[in-house]
Amino acid sequence: MRRRPAARGDPDAPNRAFQFCGGNIHRYSTNPATAGIKRHFPGAVPYARSMSRPDTATHPASTIGTAPAIPVHLRHTNEADLDAVARMMSLAFGAPVDGCREWINPLREHNRVLAPESGPPVANALTIPMGQYFGGKSVPMTGIAGVAVSPEHRGGGLAQQLMREVLTELHASGISLSTLYASTQSLYRKVGYEQAGLRANYKLDLRRLTPRRDHAGGHADPAASAVPVGSWRELTEGDHPAVVDCYRTFARRENGLLDRGEYIWGRVRVFRDKEQTGFGLWSADNTSLLAYVYLYQERGQYGHFNMSLQDLAFRDAPAGRELMKFLTSFSTTGTELTFAGGATHPLLMLAELQLAQQTSAEVWMTRIVHLQNALTARGYAAAATGQSLELALDVQDAVLPGNNGRWLLQVASTGATCTKLDSPSPKVPTLSCTIGGLVPVYSGWQTARQAAAAGLVWGDDRALSMADAVFAGGGSSWCVDFF
């Protein structure tokens, strides 16, 4: 049996945090004129009732195999699909069918399938609405997970068709970006995704974690905190708005961290059936959350335990050092500490000794779905410093033709604008690229010169220098959330 490439999710265990996936999650519109390419596959088993939807469009058909062909189209998931979708995901990920069903059922409005007019779905993808921080601003992004094709219909291009149709729909809705974790990158590169950042797992000896000091022997920058520190207490559901505010302060300093929706926040509180315990450090007047952590303790031998950090954030360096001291208070019986980060982690920069070991690492991929919106939504360091920069982009996109052509990106103190150019502008440096090749530069994962060395972008020295000045990246993009 041929192995099907998949974007990875978490069907292996029910997630009890779906109570946070309420009806106020953004619902995307569907444009009948921009649904995907219609394909055929042999021999599906029909349901008794039609599952066609009025918002589904069709296109000229092709065939897969030699058996009688049945056309398929993209549509939303309905309740009658759940058994087929759960079976598909179970066979794709080796997970229990019941767990897959419980995972996908509350998310039906965001799940998309390829299916015939009257028959079970043959391909599946979960679309998760959220945002992602780049240059200090949240850019609208849709996460992709749970991509699966039924074993009977693999090898015929259905996974690629599914992704093309989902991307076409997202582009029509104006969504800027899409991000996923890919077990096989080749499929997603074919539809314009490229490496964009890192998620690494770390471990260290909790008993050796101490805050750093400056060369004079005192804590670095002792006057940095303008907010008097209060005390730690366990977080409650009523503290969630304060947690979100603290997290956003932390996340917008980094490239790649998610602007979480309810689904991702639910996974912070309960991850793979493990309920996390949250603690927060409040200001002395109890009005501001300065730092927080969600952790899970797993008992080991001889009364000791290991501790994993599902999430943490802090507003400034003094709050970060208080967080580190709070973690060390568990070291009496706690031994190993594990957490996720990027090439490093802001918390590690506050430690006296760099003792953390990277145990695993995974690169995530991003797709620029709507080029104009993505370029204008992103933040730019040059804008904050009052610089005015111009860069022309000559872009090729084989999947979404609306992104093709020459574009002028202008960055000023008032923000960024992106306009279509009718003809080349010799006075403005031009960077040429495929839509995927632009991704690592956009995300800050690579500089333009690094991307050029990998053959992802091309341009003269002036264009590469301008692109580096505009995007100001290079190995700095990371994410802690796995979806």
Quick rundown:
The chain has helices spanning 82-93, 97-104, 158-172, 185-190, 240-251, 262-269, 317-328, 371-377, 381-384, 435-443, 448-453, 461-471, and strands at 39-42, 69-76, 111-116, 123-134, 137-149, 177-180, 194-205, 229-234, 258-259, 270-271, 274-275, 277-283, 289-299, 305-314, 334-341, 357-368, 389-396, 405-412, 415-421, 430-434, 457-458. The protein is α+β, with helices and mostly antiparallel strands and 483 residues long. Strands 1, 2, 3, 4, 5, 6, 7, 8, 9, 12, 13, 14, 15 and 16 form a 14-stranded mixed sheet that branches. Strands 19-18-17-20-21 form a 5-stranded mixed sheet.
Description:
By secondary structure, this protein is α+β, with helices and mostly antiparallel strands. It folds into three domains: 18-191, Aminopeptidase (3-Layer(aba) Sandwich), CATH 3.40.630.30; 210-354, 3-Layer(aba) Sandwich (Aminopeptidase), CATH 3.40.630.30; 371-471, SCP2 sterol-binding domain (Nonspecific Lipid-transfer Protein, Chain A). Helix content is 23%, strand content 31%. It has helices at residues 82-93, 97-104, 158-172, 185-190, 240-251, 262-269, 317-328, 371-377, 381-384, 435-443, 448-453, 461-471; strands at residues 39-42, 69-76, 111-116, 123-134, 137-149, 177-180, 194-205, 229-234, 258-259, 270-271, 274-275, 277-283, 289-299, 305-314, 334-341, 357-368, 389-396, 405-412, 415-421, 430-434, 457-458.
